[in-house]
């Protein structure tokens, strides 16, 4: 979207400092229930707390965040390409450096 409409996802400096375009996700805790909406930025914060969106009125009522916005937490990707963070090792040493750009990105083995 940014490629076709540059600046659309930028912050409105003339307004209240919010993004020009709001990105919403629709959800409901029960089938047939009227859908509610949540900003994707707020849903991302909830995803950092856990995998479930919890109904504040009925804490036992939940919905998986992966069901609401699978691309937000990469749940739409095939399992065979997902990495397990616990299995990764990282040693920031010169002998492991594969390349570095002119700005701020370095790739390590």
Secondary structure class reads alpha+beta
| Number of helices, where a helix is a run of at least 4 consecutive DSSP H or I residues | 2
Radius of gyration: 19 Å
> Could you say how many structural domains there are in total?
1
Largest sheet: 2 strands, antiparallel
Helix content: 10-25%
**What general outline do the C-alpha atoms trace?**
extended
Say how many strands there are: 6
Give helix and strand order, one letter per element, not per position.
EEHEEHEE
Protein name: Leucine-rich repeat serine/threonine-protein kinase 2-like
Organism: Thamnophis sirtalis
Primary descriptors:
single chain, 109 residues, alpha+beta, two-stranded antiparallel sheet, 2 helices
Describe the protein's architecture and organization.
The structure is a single chain. With 109 residues, the chain is an alpha+beta fold. The protein has one domain (24-108). It has helices spanning 40-49, 65-68; strands at residues 24-27, 36-39, 52-54, 62-64, 97-100, 106-108. It has a two-stranded antiparallel ribbon. Strands 3-4 form a two-stranded antiparallel ribbon. A two-stranded antiparallel ribbon has the order 5-6. A hairpin with a 7-residue loop joins β3 and β4. The protein is extended, with a radius of gyration of 19 Å. The protein starts with 23 loop residues before the first strand and ends with a strand.
Report a brief summary of the structure.
The protein has 109 residues and is of the alpha+beta class. The protein is 13% helix and 19% strand.
């Amino acid at each position: 979207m940014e490629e076709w409409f540059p600046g659309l996802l930028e912050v409105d400096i003339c307004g209240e400092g919010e993004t020009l375009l709001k990105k919403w996700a629709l959800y409901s805790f029960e089938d047939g229930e009227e859908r509610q909406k949540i900003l994707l930025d707020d849903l991302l914060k909830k995803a950092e707390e856990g995998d479930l969106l919890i109904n504040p009125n009925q804490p036992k009522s939940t919905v998986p965040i992966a069901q609401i916005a699978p691309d937000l937490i990469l749940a739409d990707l095939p399992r065979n390409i997902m990495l397990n963070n616990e299995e990764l090792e990282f040693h920031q040493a010169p002998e492991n450096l594969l390349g570095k750009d002119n700005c701020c990105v370095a790739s390590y083995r």
